Amino acid sequence: MKIAVVGTGYVGLVTGTCFAETGNRVTCVDIDQSKVNRLTNGEITIYEPGLEKLFLRNLKEQRLHFTTDLAAGIADATIVFLALPTPPGEDGSADLKYILGVADELGKIMTDYKVIVDKSTVPVGTADKVKDAICRNYTGEFDVVSNPEFLREGVAVDDFMKPDRVVIGTSSDRAKKIMGDLYAPFVRQGNPVLFMDERSAELTKYAANSFLATKISFMNEIAQLCERMGANVDMVRRGIGSDERIGKRFLFPGIGYGGSCFPKDVKALIHSAEQMDYDFKILYAVEKVNAHQKLHLVSKIQDYFNHQISGKHFAIWGLAFKPNTDDIREAPALEIIETLLQLGASISVFDPEAMKNVQQLMGNKLNYADNMYAALNNADALIIATEWSEFRTPDFEQMKANLKAKIIFDGRNLFEKEWMLQEGFEYLSIGRP
Ligand code: NAD
């Protein structure tokens, strides 16, 4: 099949590459000329495990192309994916200017039947708006499909190639057949392709992300109780996770959810509900808990140092909003850093993949260490903000030699407390007595 993917970011590049991998001819369109140049020249623009190999193979096989020219990019495509940003507007609503702007353009340049697919996370009713925008300038046949994306950064290629489910919202049999054929190679193991109406598909994505954010905030509240009651959240987590109705995954407390999706999608669903005169009460609380949890570690640090943070030097391990990505959008580490800097601390940081992005954002406000141990030099404490695998079994002797004081504030509960005490650290983590 011939496919165009408009927007070549975390979702668009993975989508385009994975569809090329199953034999389709894919053209990725982006307005960012330098990104398109880099990709055309075989330089990958994001860090995502496993992606580079597939990207280079499909580029070489000429199944994957990049352009800034929308008209040329979609000319012979049967399916056009929109993988464009939907950032929060000032009122929390999803800003549709990128989606509707491109839809308007499509209406001006389409000459034959195409399936236009909303891959971006968009509020209920967007498929209709996209349809209207195209219809303003185009009178031929086309369909608009809602096909929300559930990939997780860090395991995006695996998620895309072996999805738990594919959701396709359409009322058109023609589009249903085309989308079903496109996804057939990805669901050979029997994972479901769920066909539904456009509105249900649009809401499914927000419901999924909001539910997951709720799970995180719930566990963070349990962790808060554990700290006050002398219980251990690791035990409570295992205790409830063994119940099949609850499940083991997504029960880890920490320093709050971040990233480009959960914060914006929770906000957008709250806003959509308000527009329908409905207060989504749980989600207000989910946001409030998260805002508090993001600074919980800073409160611990302040308590420990009797609010004398000025002049202290901290090491931070982990900057990305989660491991295995270079994405720092809404990363909790950044909020911790900003707060400590405001309190007069100085900071050395290390992250295996996200250093370049943080450097672009924060410049010389931070010291960027060459490796995880160099970050510890002369630090009054280590703060762990992202659970990268390489932080899990570090060289404790090296850590003790480099740190000025053997104190660790662990926002991701990487270590057993007893073990750290035996190693001679003072160790403060989340939700443990
Ligand atoms: P991104 O910011 O990484 O990428 C968006 C890309 O669109 C950028 O490369 C940008 O240059 C390009 N762009 C902007 N305007 C354009 C235009 N007019 N024409 C062509 N290209 C244009 O965003 P992302 O993380 O890939 O997210 C895209 C959508 O997918 C969002 O709605 C997001 O909520 C959703 N989503 C993201 C994830 C994720 O993990 N990142 C997962 C599921 C769904």
Features:
single chain, 433 residues, alpha/beta, Rossmann fold, N-(1-d-carboxylethyl)-l-norvaline Dehydrogenase, domain 2, 3 domains, 6-stranded parallel sheet, 14 strands, binds nicotinamide-adenine-dinucleotide
Structural class: alpha/beta
- The tally of strands reads 14
What's the shape? globular
Helical amount among residues, as a percent range?
Answer: 40-55%
Instruction: Please state how the strands of the largest beta sheet are arranged side by side.
Output: 3-2-1-4-5-6
Number of helical elements: 17
Bound ions, cofactors and other small molecules, one mention each: nicotinamide-adenine-dinucleotide
CATH topology of the largest domain: Rossmann fold
Task: Determine Rg (CA atoms, Å).
Answer: 23 Å
CATH superfamily of the largest domain: NAD(P)-binding Rossmann-like Domain
CATH class of the largest domain: Alpha Beta
Instruction: Tell me about the largest β-sheet.
Output: 6 strands, parallel
In the residues, how many domains can be counted?
Answer: 3
Any idea what the CATH architecture of the largest domain is?
3-Layer(aba) Sandwich
End-to-end Cα distance, whole Å, is: 57 Å
* Low-confidence parts: none
Beta-strand share of residues: 5-15%
Mean pLDDT: 97
What's the topology here?
Layout: E1 2-6, H1 10-21, E2 25-29, H2 33-40, H3 51-60, E3 64-67, H4 70-74, E4 79-82, H5 97-109, E5 115-118, H6 126-135, E6 143-146, H7 156-161, E7 166-169, H8 173-183, E8 193-196, H9 198-229, H10 233-241, H11 262-275, H12 281-294, H13 296-304, E9 313-317, H14 332-342, E10 346-350, H15 355-362, E11 367-368, E12 381-384, H16 396-402, E13 407-410, H17 417-422, E14 426-428
Parallel strand pairs: 1-2, 1-4, 2-3, 4-5, 5-6, 7-8, 9-10, 9-12, 10-11, 12-13, 13-14
Helix pairs in contact: 1-3, 5-6, 9-11, 9-12, 11-12
Bound molecules: nicotinamide-adenine-dinucleotide.
